[in-house]
Structures are given as C-alpha cells and as structure tokens.
TrEMBL record:
Keywords: ATP-binding, Nucleotide-binding, Transport
Gene Ontology molecular-function annotations: ATP binding; ATP hydrolysis activity
Pfam families linked: ABC_tran
Gene3D superfamilies: P-loop containing nucleotide triphosphate hydrolases
Family: Belongs to the ABC transporter superfamily.
Family matches, as SMART domains: AAA
SUPFAM superfamilies membership: P-loop containing nucleoside triphosphate hydrolases
Residue ranges occupied by any ABC transporter domain in the UniProt entry: 5-234
Domain of life (superkingdom): Bacteria
CDD domains referenced in this protein's UniProt entry, alphabetically: ABC_DR_subfamily_A (cd03230)
Name the record gives this protein: ABC-2 type transport system ATP-binding protein
InterPro entries, per database record: AAA+_ATPase (IPR003593), ABC_transporter-like_ATP-bd (IPR003439), ABC_transporter-like_CS (IPR017871), ABC_transporter_ATP-binding (IPR050763), P-loop_NTPase (IPR027417)
Amino acid sequence: MPPILSIANLSKVYASGHNALKDISLDIAKGEIFALLGPNGAGKTTLISIVCGIVTASAGSVRVDGQCIVRDYKAARKAIGLVPQELTTDAFETVWATTAFSRGLFGLPPDPAHLERTLRDLSLWDKRDSRIMTLSGGMKRRVLIAKALAHEPRILFLDEPTAGVDVALRQDMWRLVRRLRDQGVTIILTTHYIDEAEEMADRVGVIRNGEIILVEDKAELMRKLGKKQLTLHLASPLAGLPPALAGHNLELAQGGRDLVYTYDTTGDAGLTGLLADLAAAGIGFRDLHTSQSSLEDIFVDLVKERA
C-alpha cells in the first residue's frame, strides 16, 4: 500500500539564511500514529507547516494521499486537518458557527450529525452556542480540534495539542485519537509529553537541527536502544569496586551502599556471571530492583549524542 504522506528531499531556508529543514525524506503509512519528537527549534512546526501549505518549501516535494501539495493544492489540503499550537479562533463566533464554517471552507455540504458527534466527543456540546471569547483556554483548545475534524480529514496533524491544558482534555483527546485511528485516520503529532508518544505512537521520528536523525518502530526502538538497570542494595558498603568485578558494567551509588549494573534490553546473559562473581568476592546484598529506560530517556540520549 502506498504511503498516505510522502516527503522527499524537503528543505527550507528562510530569507534570514536560517536553514530550518535539511533534505528530509519521510513516508507515513495510512492509519498509523506517528510521533515527531525534537527539542525546541528543531524544525517540527516548519515541517508541518510546509505539508499543510502554510509555508513554502525551498526544495523537495510532498504528496498527500497521492496528491502533490503544490500542483493539487486543494485536493491535498482537503485531506488534512491541522491543530496548531497557537489558539487562533474567531473570538466573537459561537462554537457551532466556527466549526460549521471550517467544514464549509472545504466545499463540503452541511452535516449537523457529524458536527454534533465531534462536539460531543470533545465535551463541547453544552458549549455549542457559547461565544469562543467566553471559553477557558482548555475549551478553546478543544474548539481547535473540532475545527480540524469538521471536514473529516484523512490525516490529522496535532502540533503540541496538549501543551498547557488540563488532564481531562488530554484524556479526552487521546480517546478520540484512538477512535480516529480505528476509523483509518492517520495521526501525526508533536509533543513535549514524551509519555504520550510512548503510550500512543506506532512509530517515532526524532528531528534535530532540521534533520531527521532517526525513524523507528516504537517497540523496536525501545528494544534496540533501551537499557535496563539492576540495582543491588548491598549488605555492607564498598569503598570501591573489587578488581574481580572489573569485567562488568558496574558503578557504585549511594555512598557505596548500592551497586548498579546496566545492560541492554535484548538479554541478560551477563547477570548469571555477575551474581557468581559477587558470591566469589564475598559481596552480599539485602535487596534488588530493576528499572528500564523510557522513550524519554532514549530521546534525551539521542539528542545528546548528536549535539
């Protein structure tokens, strides 16, 4: 099956000389949830803005559901819903009116039933006749999502959709995202809440300084780059690591009271040897526990490595 979004050799250089994107190529499959992670200024919003027709690329091409975003602009844009970072809404319009207007912008006939479902899904139905200026920041964010979904897009971009919003909205939105994915909608999100990407995404891309440095299936990424730690709480503190343990990836912590062993997630073959060497050296322990790196740990390590 061809990708629903295909980005090829995309670059963007602004008039100031700032090189925001550098030869980016990326394919997104229909129905997947793709998380684009990167530090501030990495190029995430510029990339989304080019795909959505807000910013013009300096080089490269983008195809949305087979349509070129330049030659077939209307058809390509109709396939996309965008929830931007900024709260940009018409303050004097009602929730219903602005959502209905967004649908009409794409030449679609009125569909009150679809709009009602969307507003109910986002807990906005009771606010449908309220002017946007009277809503809280969290409610205004919900309105942006409703506007993006009004024309039933096949691709939904969520650019930092839960930044600064309440827990209830985050939960509502992720429930809605799952339902949309089940209906075949492709979701592309950027987020500073990496725990959200870890929970929701099928694949993860990392962008830094305008370059995609990694694209990987989330589970495979965590398998290959994740690490486990075994922490042994020693019966007696150690002043230093005995030479007999030099072959293991160990470090002392908590003033010599803990021994920390780090290994990758693909196996634990070294544990048996470590425990045997500890017994031979007469080092006992009272307790132990294990921990595993999260997607956030992996992201931080990747960005540091490419700094």
